[in-house]
Design goal:
Length: 124
Amino acid sequence: LHMAGWVEHAALPAALASLDVLLNTSDNEGLPVSLIEAMAAGVPIVATRAGGTVSLIEDGVTGRVVRTGNSDAIARATLETLTDRAMRERYASAARGAVHPRYDISTLVGTMEGFYTSLVAGNR
């Protein structure tokens, strides 16, 4: 178990490549960029059903999502993911496909540009 905390951008690819599974057990979330990065890197994820997590991860397809505050469910999902290589590979492949091109930098910049253009034009 490694509780990484903040990882410098330059060290992120190596840090993600070293993971067997990434856990995000938050009670409250926005849209966790750490999950987008892990999905893009093909790291299997077990996360709690908090905020934007559910818009990123489809339970049983791109990772595992469990109810917040349920440590038994988190442990079960983590053990299942760790012990089933084929499952990890399916999640990794589906997760990469789910984030590209949706969260690609050019897509995000285009979306933001459109949003700000509409604000300037008065089309809220």
